[in-house]
Amino acid sequence: METSFTPLAAIAGGGLIGLAVMLLYLGLGRIAGVSGMFTAAIRPSTGVGERAWRLAFLAGLLLGPLLASAALNEQLVRPSPAETPLLVLAGLLVGLGTGFANGCTSGHGVCGVARLSRRSLVATATFMTAGFVTASLLRHLVEV
Amino acid sequence: MNLSKIALALVSGTLFGAGLAVSGMTNPSKVLNFLDLSGQWDPSLALVMASAIPVATLTFNLARRRQKPVFEPKFVLPQNTKLDMRLVAGSALFGLGWGLGGYCPGPAVASLGNPSLPLFAFLAAMTVGLLVSGKLAASLDTTSRRPQPA
Fold first, then answer.
1. Please, what's the largest Cα pairwise distance for chain B?
2. Which secondary structure element, helix H or strand E, spans residue B13, and what is its range?
3. Best interface-test mutation with A: which of B34, B86, B93 has the largest number of A CBs within 10 A?
4. What is the value of ipTM here, to two decimals?
5. Closest chain B C-alpha to A141 CA, distance in angstroms
6. Do B99 and A49 touch (CB under 8 A)?
7. Is B122 domain-assigned?
8. What is the dihedral of CA B122, A92, A89, A76, to 10 degrees?
9. Exposure check for chain A: N or C terminus, fewer CB within 10 A?
10. How far is it, in rounded angstroms, from Cα A122 to Cα A97?
11. Range of the domain at B112
């Protein structure tokens, strides 16, 4: 599906993401990294208190797009153009990869890059490159 | 666990999710059109990062002037500084999966408000991947710590 460049919406949305990072770090002293938060929220060994704030954040993450869609009177959550079997493969790779790397686009890409963490800079450069190569080449081979 | 912490996490998550949606990042086609340099390139994702990162940088600078966060005794930052294969290979696998489906973990969870079978399939597979990576990493750590045979 073709999409158009939406610079103002991108800057406004990025600002909201930045504010979310600020609130969570200055309030609870925690990095807003979704893969880590998701893992800790579902892992059985996580304590009640440690699980509760993560579940609250994840509930908000789900609620935010609903509120934004209602406010802008537009369905902002869209399906992936990829077929389900490909999405299963994609999900496995995303889970394994972010698990091994201890972070994804939020934890490494936004928070880690912002504090110039060397690990996050390396992780972000790597997943960006892999993402560009995959979408630019493989995407055409499997005709998504 | 006090209620103000839960409320703060809920508000932060809501802002995060709203930001993803407003910027178009809950539309995987938009993400894929950023990652796909061969087609109709949509640079929006770059501006999302360029806008979020300075606010995050400001956050970490503000935190340096404070003893502790408002509701907790200390700021928690990752202590791992190793640039190892786990980090690089993991990030490469992640990028590969991201480029196939257009979902990274944040937008995938944020999309649950408009659920669909393909999204559930992605999230279920991602959950398996995350849990397996934890087990694999733990066993690899044990193996590498074992004394080498003479």
1. 60
2. helix B3-22
3. B93
4. 0.96
5. 11
6. no
7. yes
8. 30
9. N
10. 14
11. 3-145
**Token duo for residue B76:** 């928690």
Closest CA to B93 of A127, A68, A29, A137: A127
pLDDT tens-digit readout, B32-82: 999 999 888 999 999 999 999 999 999 999 999 999 999 999 999 999 999
Q: Which two tokens stand for residue A105?
A: 């686009």
Burial of B47 (0-12, 13-18, 19+ CB in 10 A): buried
Total residue count of chain A as it appears in this document = 144
B96-108 residue pLDDT tens:
999 999 999 999 9
In a domain, B150, yes or no: no
Tokens 């935010």 locate to A64
Could you tell me which of B68, B69, B54, B76 has the C-alpha nearest to residue A19? B54
Contacts of A82 in chain B (CB under 8 A): 28, 100-102, 118
Counting the structural domains of chain B, the total is 1
pTM of the model: 0.95
A34, B103 Cβ separation under 8 angstroms: no
Q: Which of A38, A111, A114, A127 is nearest to B108 (CA)?
A: A38
The Cα-based distances of B20 to A31, B12, B28 in angstroms read 17, 12, 11
Instruction: Specify whether the CB–CB gap between A9 and B21 falls below 8 A.
Output: no
